[in-house]
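Fig. S4 source data, part A: sequence.
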Amino acid sequence: MGRVTEPLPPHPATADLADAVREIEHHVAAAGWDAPVRVFALVRTQAALEAEPGLADQLHDDVLAAAGSAPWHLTSIEQEGLPAAADLEALLAELSWPASVDGVAVTVERVVLPPEAEAQMPRDKAQALDYLLTHPDRQDVRLAVGVLRDGPSWCAVRTRANDSDDQVGQGPHLVPGLVAALRSTLD
């Protein structure tokens, strides 16, 4: 008989990371669709307040209270002036973070097809793009993915067809390739 292993207890920051990713996704969703890639540094709010006490004047009282009671409460800082890159993979390959950054999150929009439609996609790039954009079963999705340095990941997925805050899919490993790419920016 095989050995039974107990699941590992969740990382103490998982709930706080999930909250931060949800907050980022809601913030980006408020701006509507057809948006560019957005990147956010994630820092523990308590550490940010210790390093920069004036930050308290910019945060709401409920954020300050949450940060006081949760050591992993995270503040997201949108990154502006990102380097020009041909695609998301190239952009992430150019990013690195100082030790004061506890994690990173990104939002990106994609078009997805059901597996059977994807299998029929032409190999030629121009034809494949046309096929993707005109396919009747295509779905526009927004991905919000966050990772912590040596810690958990969290993903939120919203479809344009079900564009409602209560219709956002969530979980730690929904977009494993993007989770891995984000994690590599923290190495």
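Fig. S4 source data, part B ends here. Residues 14-30 form the longest helix (17 residues).
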